[in-house]
Amino acid sequence: MTASSTFGLSHEARNLHWLLTNLVEEVPGILSVAVVSSDGLLLLSSDPGRNEQARQEGGRPSGPRGSAADLATIVSGIGSLAVGAAKLMDGGTVKQTMVAMEDGGLFVMAISDGSLLGVHGSPDCDMSVVAYHMALFVGRAGHVLTPELRSELRKSLEASTMETAK
Questions:
Q1: For the chain, which ranges sit under pLDDT 50?
Q2: What percent of the chain has a predicted confidence (pLDDT) above 70?
Q3: CB-side exposure of 40: number of CA atoms within 13 Å?
Q4: Residues in CB range of 49: below 8 A, 6 or more apart
Q5: Which H helix or E strand runs over 110?
Q6: Is-contact 138 130, C-beta < 8 A?
Q7: For the chain, what percent of residues have pLDDT higher than 90?
Q8: pLDDT for 121
Q9: What residue ranges in the chain does DSSP mark as E strands?
Q10: What CA–CA distance (Å, rounded) separates 88 from 94?
């Protein structure tokens, strides 16, 4: 994430950007991160322009199919399936879902009011370290993710995506 992507944002939005950047930079093995609203829309990603830039330069984008929107879709779908399964099994609220794959891992954690934090990790990431740092992010971000802030983040991401496309 670049400093220009936070220009003009509220203090809370800049803090969430900082928390997300810190999560990606401090935890080894994290490939991409997405914060998704309860209705499945991408609110925040580890670097919304990075994957498009990699495609244009002929490089291999990181993350699922190279798109933060793809990660958001996957996170939203897995979150929804986990909530449905928990209801069928009378399991209560879903706190975290982990998918271990041969070539990576996917972690989904509830933030607040249906919002989700999704992390795509490399095959060699330490799942317990990733989960711990995700819990720290959720603890710090959950109380500030208000409807107003979600709206601001959506608009900021749309503007950033339009800038990247130019």
A1: 1-4, 48-55, 58-61, 63-65
A2: 79
A3: 9
A4: 2, 5, 160, 161, 163, 164
A5: strand 104-110
A6: no
A7: 49
A8: 94
A9: 30-36, 42-45, 96-101, 104-110, 116-121
A10: 12
